[in-house]
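Suppose you are handed a protein chain with no further information: no name, no annotation, nothing but its sequence. What can you learn? This example shows the usual starting point.
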Amino acid sequence: MIQPSATPQTARTKASRPSRRATLALVSALALGGLSSLGLPAAAQAWPDKPVRVVVPAPAGSSLDVIVRAMAEPLKARWGQPLVVENKAGAGGTIGMDAVAKAAPDGYTLGIGFNGPIAFGPFMFKKMPYDPAKDLTAVVLTTSQPNVLAVPANHPANNLREFVAWAKGQGDKVSYASVGAGSSSHLSMELLKSVAGFQGTHVPFGGSPPAAMSVAQGETQALLTVEPALLPLVQGGRIKLIGVTSPQRLASRPDLPTVAESGYPGFEALAWNGLFVPAGTPPAIVSRINADVNAVMAEAAFRDNMARQGLIIGGGSAAQFQSYIDAEGKKWGAIIDKAGIKLD
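A reasonable first move is to predict its three-dimensional structure. Written in structure tokens, the prediction is:
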């Protein structure tokens, strides 16, 4: 498958995202009742009558690519048409999402967007080739994934409280890695620095492998990124995990405390993604796509597949997804402005 109303660390409110109960109720209704229960117009039920293109603004094999390809066969069964996956990576995801924004608004071009080119970009780039709020329509939240805090295996801190105390004692000597400037990895650490009150120099890398290796080798002292990217080094005893940015502990690591329970209530930082269509796409088609994707995400096979990737299933209505995006923009816009992060 967030918003500082008073302070940057305030977690997103329950109203800004679909609750688990609401999401499960919706997908169950879809699975049991089918599309007819939604009373969709005949035009939407007639769609599609040709293949549907899905733009992935990331390389083949990326988590975004995996999500879309996992949906391809179940959606083909529902639509009677194949999904044509088109990978358009580059420029922090903006190249792919620009292609979606400029496509015909007929329901035959979808894109899987994520934090960067949707919620972060407007605050980081001096000029974007599209306006996410005006040129794209949110359809459905697909998945989300928390970051975990990794430090070298021989680091003196064994939990977040100890790490923060250590970092404060280092003054300006702490350096932290990220998977790229302006990424969720980067901004999550900026948020942690802000709420915990320690300093740190950002060292951006081109992806998770080199960033994680810099921590393992002691070149940097910390990294926030998604867990699967770190597993080889964790299993090899070269780095250790001391916190997770989700509201609840990971099912795969029940002994790993959250940042929120480690002294920073309300802290939450998730890497999320969802489906979008060009603005102007008929609402009935948006509703049809939303309903069918929700139904696919309710299927056990899909849910098991996503769980193996460390992904949390999303779901809910298009309106709920848009509310979440709006809240994310407010939250992270404040962090981006405070940190002075600008990308040309």
